[in-house]
Design goal:
alpha/beta, 6-stranded parallel beta sheet, 19 helices, 14 strands, globular, binds iron/sulfur cluster
C-alpha cells in the first residue's frame, strides 16, 4: 500500500547516516569480499520510500556507501533521515547540511521515537511507526515544502497494519554492496528485559506481515541481486511462536523452489531451544545462524534483569541444541551489570570456551531511554552524562576502570586467533555438518558465482594467508577446510574471524568503544563530507 490522495509532486531525498567502526558491522571483513562496502540495507527508510505517493520522485543515499552530494540536495525539495541512537551525531550533521540548502528535513525511526529531544534542529519529527503521522507529514509537505517556522512533532497514534506495508524499495539500494540482505517479518517482543527498549517502542504483542509478503520480499531481494545471506531483523523471531510456525513452511517451499539461494539468519530468544518443531523447520528453511541475547551466563544476573526466559533450558544445553540443527549461535553479552563481581570476566571467558560460540558481541551496559533500566538508574541517581568520556552512561557498582579493564581482557583473550579459530573448527565439525545438504544449483555453478568465490579466496589468501600476522593459525584451519572441500565454510569463517580479530585488538588497547551504544569514539567520523 502507498499513501494516496496527494496530487502535488515533491522530490524526496532519503539519507541514511553513516555508522562508524563497530563490532557488529564487520567492516574489517569487507576488504576480503568482492566489493562489499556497508552492512545491511536500512529497512525503515526503504519502507518510507516505498510508501511515498506513487508520483513523488525519490532518491536514496546511504552515506555508508557515498555521501549525499550538493547535486542531491539541489535536486530535493525535502530530506528524510532515519537511524538509531549511535547515529545521532551523523543524523544531526545531515540535517545541518540539508539546511545549508534551505531544505525541510524530517527525521523518523527508533532514535527520534525514543528521544525526540536529541533532534532540536530538524523541521519535522516523526515519532512512532508508519501511520497517521506519516500521512500528515506527506500532506504538509505537499501543501508547502518550505521549512516551517517552528519544529513540528507528528506522533503516530493510528499505526498502519504490517499486512498493509509495501515491500521496502530495495530497488533504490545498491544491494550488492551490502554484507547482508535484510528483511522484517514481525515487530515487538512479549518479554520485558530491563535494559531493552523494544517492548516500550514497538509493544509486547508482536505485529506481523503475512507469509505472502515475506515471499514477495524475498523474490524482490533476489531480483535486485541479493545472493548469500539474508537477516531477519525482527526483534525476536519467535516473539509469536505460532506466527513463526506459519511462516516457516513458506520459507522452506521458497528455498526448495529457488535452490536454496539464501542462507537465513535471525534474532530469537534462547528458549527457542525448547521448540524442536520450530528448529527443525528452520533447519529445512536453511537458517544457519541465530543471534541470541544470552547477556550473561550468571543465573542471578539474568533474574535481576528480568531475562528468566533464558534459563528455561540450561544455557549450554540450549546452545548445543541449536547447534545440533545446524545453526551457529551468535551471542550478545553485557558487562557492567549490578550483579557483576571481580571474577565475572573469568567466568565469561570460561563460558566462551565451553559454549564454543565463535562470535559474541561483548558490550558494556548502557541505559537506553524508554527502558525500565533507565527509570531505575534515574531513581537511584546513577545515570551519567555521555560527555564524561566514558563508554557507558551507567554508574557501575564496581569501579569503572575495573569493568573496562575486564572487558578489554575478555576481548583480548576471547578473540586471540588460536582460540577463535579453535571455536570455528568446533562449529565446522559439530554444527555445520548438521546442516541440510543442499543440491548444487545452476546458479551456484554459474561463472558469476564461481568468480565471486575466487575473488574472495584470493583476497583471503593474500591479505590473511600471506600478509596476516596470524597466518600460521589461519593456514592450520584453512588446510583442514580445503582437505574437506569446504570452500564455503572456509570463506565465511575466515572473513568473520578476520573482523573479530582486528576489532578485538583495537578494543583491547582502548581504540574502540566498549559499548555499541557509546558515542565516545564515534564523533570523529562526522561530517561525511
Ligand atoms: S527478549 Fe530480546 S527483544 Fe525481547 S525484551 Fe528481551 S532483549 Fe528485548
Amino acid at each position: 500500500m502507498r499513501a494516496e490522495g496527494i496530487e502535488t509532486v515533491r522530490r524526496i531525498l532519503c539519507v541514511f547516516p553513516r555508522y562508524t567502526s563497530s563490532f557488529g558491522t564487520f567492516e574489517h571483513a569487507y576488504p576480503l569480499t568482492d566489493g562489499v562496502q556497508a552492512f545491511m540495507p536500512p529497512q525503515g527508510l526503504l519502507l518510507i520510500a516505498a510508501y511515498l505517493p506513487a508520483n513523488w520522485p525519490v532518491r536514496f543515499v546511504d552515506e555508508n556507501l557515498r555521501p549525499a552530494t550538493k547535486e542531491d540536495f539541489e535536486w530535493a525539495e525535502a530530506v528524510f533521515v532515519s537511524g538509531m541512537h549511535i547515529q545521532r551525531q551523523q543524523m544531526n550533521d545531515i540535517c545541518r547540511r540539508a539546511h545549508a540548502f534551505d531544505l525541510s528535513v524530517a527525521i523518523g525511526g527508533p532514535s527520534v521515537s525514543a528521544c525526540p529531544d536529541y533532534y532540536p534542529s530538524f523541521d519535522y519529527l516523526h515519532v512512532g511507526e508508519l501511520g497517521d503521522a506519516t500521512n500528515e507529514l506527506f500532506a504538509r509537505l505537499a501543501q508547502d515544502p518550505s521549512r516551517p517556522e517552528q519544529q513540528v512533532v507528528l506522533t503516530t497514534k493510528d499505526r498502519i497494519a504490517m499486512t498493509d506495508f509495501p515491500i521496502p524499495a530495495y530497488e533504490l539500494a545498491e544491494v550488492k554492496k551490502y554484507f547482508l540482505g535484510s528483511i522484517q517479518y514481525s515487530s515487538g517482543c512479549p518479554y520485558q528485559c530491563e535494559f531493552c527498549d523494544i517492548p516500550g517502542l514497538y509493544g509486547r504483542n508482536p505485529r506481523l506481515k503475512s507469509p505472502g509478503q515475506i515471499i514477495a520480499e524475498l523474490d524482490k531481494l533476489r531480483e535486485c541481486g541479493v545472493t548469500g545471506s539474508v537477516y531477519f531483523v525482527d526483534d525476536n523471531f519467535i516473539g509469536n511462536r505460532k506466527a513463526a510456525l506459519d511462516l516457516l513452511p513458506h520459507l522452506v517451499e521458497w528455498q526448495k523452489k529457488t535452490g536454496y539461494v539464501m542462507r537465513l539468519a535471525c534474532e530469537a530468544t534462547l528458549n527457542i531451544a525448547k521448540r524442536p518443531e520450530i528448529l527443525e523447520k528452520m533447519r529445512e528453511a536453511f537458517f544457519v545462524t541465530i543471534f541470541c541475547g544470552i547477556e550473561t551466563p550468571d543465573p542471578d544476573a539474568l533474574k535481576a534483569m528480568h531475562k528468566d526466559h533464558n534459563m528455561m533450558v540450561p544455557i549450554l544445553e540450549g546452545v548445543r541444541t541449536i547447534n545440533s540443527y545446524g545453526m551457529e549461535v551468535v551471542s550478545g553479552i553485557i558487562m557492567g551489570l549490578d550483579t557483576d563481581k571481580p571474577e565475572t570476566g573469568e567466568a565469561l571467558l570460561a563460558f566462551v570456551e565451553e559454549s564454543q560460540i565463535p562470535l559474541l558481541t561483548i558490550n558494556l551496559l548502557q541505559a537506553l531511554p524508554k527502558t525500565p533500566l533507565w527509570d531505575r538508574l534515574a531513581r537511584e541517581g546513577r545515570l551519567l552524562e555521555e560527555e564524561e568520556g566514558r563508554d557507558s552512561n551507567v554508574a557501575f557498582l564496581l569501579p569503572y576502570d575495573q569493568v573496562v579493564d575486564s572487558w578489554r581482557k575478555c576481548m583480548e583473550v576471547a578473540y586471540a586467533p588460536e582460540k577463535l579459530f579453535a571455536r570455528y573448527q568446533h562449529q565446522c565439525e559439530y554444527t555445520y555438518t548438521q546442516r541440510l545438504k543442499i543440491p548444487v544449483t545452476p546458479e551456484q555453478k554459474s561463472w558469476a558465482n564461481i568468480k565471486r568465490g575466487l575473488i574472495m579466496l584470493r583476497n583471503i589468501f593474500w591479505k590473511v594467508g600471506v600478509l596476516g600476522d596470524y597466518r600460521r593459525v589461519f593456514w592450520k584451519f584453512a588446510l583442514g577446510r580445503l582437505r574437506r572441500g569446504d570452500i564455503e565454510g572456509l570463506i565465511a569463517s575466515s572473513m568473520i574471524a578476520h573482523h573479530l580479530i582486528m576489532f578485538a585488538r583495537a578494543a583491547s588497547v582502548g581504540q574502540q568503544s566498549a559499548s555499541n551504544y557509546s558515542i565516545r569514539l564515534r564523533e570523529a567520523s562526522v561530517p561525511a563530507e
